[in-house]
Amino acid sequence: MPVAERKVWAQELQATHQTGVTMSCKVVCISRTVFYYQPTLTDDSDIIDALNDLVEKHQRWGFPKCFKRLRKLGYRWNHKRVHRVYMELKLNLRRKSKRRLPARNPEPLMVPEQLGHTWSMDFMSDQLHNKVRYRTFNVIDDFNRELLGIDIATSIPSLRVIRYLDRLAEWHGYPEKIRVDNGSKFTSNVFTDWALAHSIKVDYIKPGCPYQNAYIERFNRTYRHEVLDLYLFKDLHEVKQITEEWIEIYNNQRPHDSLNDMTPIEYRNAA
User: What are phi and psi of 131, to 5 degrees?
Assistant: First the structure.
């Protein structure tokens, strides 16, 4: 029988039968020392905070690695004590967690001081009259909001993305920086290796913050309003044809509010 229960019995004997401490302790078979003993409660809050911080940063670490790391950080808590707290926190159980994006600190959105410095790009999706879905890959120059190109296909994998960017670079040169969201096409090794090979900095926006890529988001709205939502396309050839005609209008005829009502080409020539 646990000692704690015996102490409770001894206290009940003293209360109900008016027995002394010595007699009640003999009845329940514990010493007076044990009866009067009050355990000292240790404050484990520092250990709890340290373990939680480690597990948050290193979700795949088990107890041995966590304990060794605590020692390297200068903590000298007893191995058994740390393990007890580790088990009480149930950190030994398998933890299910979503895959997380690495922490990124995008630069504030600003207008580049020269043409070709920064490109913004994004994907859009729509469907033809026969319900077949297709995607568009839109690329603009942040300096004058010039539309550099739109690639249209039913599927646009990472390899097609970099091939299209190489084609644009033949006309405009490679940019110093590219601003994109955290889509799989832009976080793939194919894309990041391509950017590294051409000394291009990839500036990822924070997840859930499309306003950090406001130039391309504003363009997407214009493209959808003036082209995609305006026509009912029967095939991809028709989408490409109408889009090519509209690109000419967008760059050379359509006034842009943020460019003092100049077109992108007029603003480029005036710079």
Answer: 75, 5
**pLDDT of 230-253, one tens digit each?**
889 999 999 999 999 999 999 998
In angstroms, rounded to a whole number, what is the distance separating the alpha carbons of residues 206 and 103? 9
Give the strand order in the sheet containing 133-141.
Answer: 146-153, 133-141, 118-127, 177-180, 201-204
- Here the tokens at position 225 are 């309003």
Query: Cα dihedral sign for 76, 79, 83, 84?
Result: negative
The H or E element that residue 11 is part of is helix 3-17
Contact 12, 47 (CB under 8 A): no
pTM (2 decimals)? 0.61
Kindly report the length of the chain.
Answer: 271
Q: Which helix (H) or strand (E) holds 193?
A: helix 189-197
Determine the 3-state secondary structure of 240 from DSSP.
helix
> What does the buried/exposed string (b/e) look like for 205-215 if buried means 16 or more CB atoms within 10 Å of the residue's CB?
bbeeeeebbeb
